[in-house]
Amino acid sequence: MTGPEVLSVAAEIFPLVKTGGLADVAGALPLALAREGVRVTTLVPGYPAVMAALEDSTEVHRFADLMDGEARLLRARAGALELLVINAPHLYDRPGNPYLKGPGEPWPDNGLRYGALAKVAAEIGLGLLADYRPAVIQAHDWHAALTPAYLFYARRKDRRLKAPPVVLSIHNLAFQGLFPAELLGKLGLPPEALAVEGVEYWGDIGFLKAGIQFADQVTTVSPSYAAEITTEDGGMGLGGLLKARAKRLVGILNGIDDDVWNPQTDPDISARYSAQTIEQRAINKLALQAKFGLRPDPEAPLFGILSRLTDQKGVDLLLGALPVLFGEGAQLIVCGQGEPRYEAAFAEAAERHPGSMGRYLGYREELAHLIQAGADAILAPSRFEPCGLTQLCAMRYGAVPVVSRTGGLSDTIIDANTAGIARSAATGVQFAPATQDMLEDAIRRTCALYRDPVSWRRVQLNAMASDSSWRVSAAEYASLFRKLSARSAINRAADAAKTGSASGEPRSFAPVGGAVDPDGPERASPQAAVTRSAPRKAAARGATKA
Ligand code: ADP
Ligand code: GLC
């Protein structure tokens, strides 16, 4: 079945630019959707790494002034990815982490940099390009979340405009994109947008809030997280608004690209293997131990953690639990970067435990693969986790995930309790709540399980047999996109033009806002829905996606 043209709008995309799972999803989902007959073009900022990767690039539009500078819109490919790229050197020609000027220091003009991304997405939706008009826009995270707001105010000004429906996909509610209200004019939004039912959020402009407010559909990356974010605690200040939009909120579990993450073909590991040759993992374990100067001990349980080093990821709990981990005779490899205090604490711990602990404080894709292939267990003691991809990769590589029971971690891992093992269902170790005590307990349980080789192997093989691919979830996205597209004004108009029918205009055509009337009354009173907690604190969490 052929599906609608989807414009995906993302601030990062694997393999061009990546700070975390958002890039993985933005890079893999289009390929998985292609198999469902849905064609995806991704709009991305022209960072140096993106510009360097472009093939067959052609200019399709020129902006005389995009947030205070000239810009060009390019159509290009990068491998299998079809891209639209905003070449705006004044906004994006900066090396390194896309969001940060220095460690923990966001670029001061991030509001304009990502406002531009959303603005261009909206213009494309409104028909900027003669030969390309998406039937649906998928806006990822706060960086793209102003897209439906731009469409709403454009259509409020000119009711003849037709806009495609927008799906806002929330990957992490902790990053909300809050900017001073004074930016409104520069962003090109009208004064009336600075209102509770507009983009205003406790005196600031809230990009994510605006997206939730105006999107035709909101998705997030696991069913459990979809439920958690409608609560006061999990909603990080936006729980009320999300609850008010609950009918338009759905959790669709992430997958992983099983070509990129495949232990049978992985070029970055020392020995390739499958479930049938799982004993080959021992070679990767030895290689890892050698690389990090650990005792070359095949019997010591080797834990790995591959993570942003932030509060979200519960790495402080792990720091506290180190005596228990080493007391069990286990080893640890930390590969991550993030808050300087955590980097320092892990560096110091590694100094104190030579032969038992190694660390790489940075971001290295190929090392992530070797750790997945050689570690016995992968830790994810997150306080909250929208989905999490490292536990999915771990399962595919036969590393046993040790995870807190939250968000996507609870949706993807089955605990190795007695019943789980007896029924050959267990795929990892789960603990709750995310406290140091419970993590210590989980580490002890993991080590005990490791010392029972039959049960351990069973859990590894169960994990390797689970389907962590995009197949099921891509089909869910495809069906959502089809549904939205079928109801959209643009699509009906196009169909009408094709068939010569006069009734191109949908009966439910919204007077203002997206092409589909999102949900009428349930979004009528957002102010009551925005709860009073500390949005700034929530938005400041984590180091890389600010
Ligand atoms: P998040 O997006 O919250 O950081 P996810 O688990 O969804 O968490 O995705 C993290 C992605 O980043 C995974 O692909 C993981 O392998 C990768 N990753 C995390 N830390 C590192 C690192 N230090 N080096 C290489 N890859 C990393
Ligand atoms: C976010 C979340 C993570 C999720 C990823 C991709 O960064 O923290 O849980 O897997 O996005 O959706």
Task: Write structural notes for this entry.
- This protein is α/β, with parallel strands linked by helices and 546 residues long.
- It folds into two domains: 6-255 and 471-539, Rossmann fold, CATH 3.40.50; 275-465, Rossmann fold (3-Layer(aba) Sandwich), CATH 3.40.50.
- The strands form four sheets. It has a nine-stranded mixed sheet, with helices on both faces.
- Helix 6 crosses helix 8 (207-214) and helix 12 (315-327) crosses helix 18.
- The chain is globular and about 70 Å long.
- 56% of the residues are buried.
- The model is unreliable at 501-528 and 530-544 (pLDDT under 50).
- The site of alpha-D-glucopyranose has 14 residues, from helix 1.
- Adenosine-5'-diphosphate binds at residues 20-22, 24, 306-308, 335-337, 363-365, 368, 387-390, 393.
List keywords for this structure.
546 residues; alpha/beta; Rossmann fold; 2 domains; 9-stranded mixed sheet; 6-stranded parallel sheet; 23 helices; 18% strand; globular; disordered C terminus; binds adenosine-5'-diphosphate; binds alpha-D-glucopyranose
